[in-house]
Amino acid sequence: MPEELEANVLLVDDEEKFVEVLAQRMKTRGLKVDTSMSGEDAVKHAKDKDLDAIVLDLQMPGMSGLEALKKIKQENPDLQIIILTGHGTVQAGIEAMKEGAMDFIEKPVDLKVLLEKIKEAKQKRVLVIQKKHEEHVKEIMQTRSW
Q1: What is the per-residue pLDDT across 25-55, written as a single tens digit (0 to 9) for each?
Q2: Fewer CB within 10 A of the end CB, N or C, for the chain?
Q3: Stronger pLDDT, 4 or 53, i.e. the higher one
Q4: Domains of the chain (ranges plus CATH)?
């Protein structure tokens, strides 16, 4: 039986069958997976949910994955986003990384690799939250006169 990874993930891709199959495979490994079929919906979803990672397709009709990445990062710069594409180029990967993507994976996706990237994303998120809490406590301690 595969090792279970507990994480809240948003899977975004305009290919409905791909999303269904990949989401099911991820769920059987312990992930809580929400899905979205567009960049616009992904941006809304990212505001409303507590996510450990977003797996975001780069090439979509309407709002592209790169545009969605930029908007999501504006709202929540600490959110970990993994770009997934079947139309990957080195230039697209570089651009996505410059805009704040955590990583870039090409289709067809190797599930083991994707799960490792999601695990890394969750670990990064936990570290970011811990650091923010520590900074907040430090700030409180400095402003109080005990």
Answers
A1: 999 999 999 999 999 999 999 998 889 999 9
A2: C
A3: 53
A4: 8-143 (3.40.50.2300)
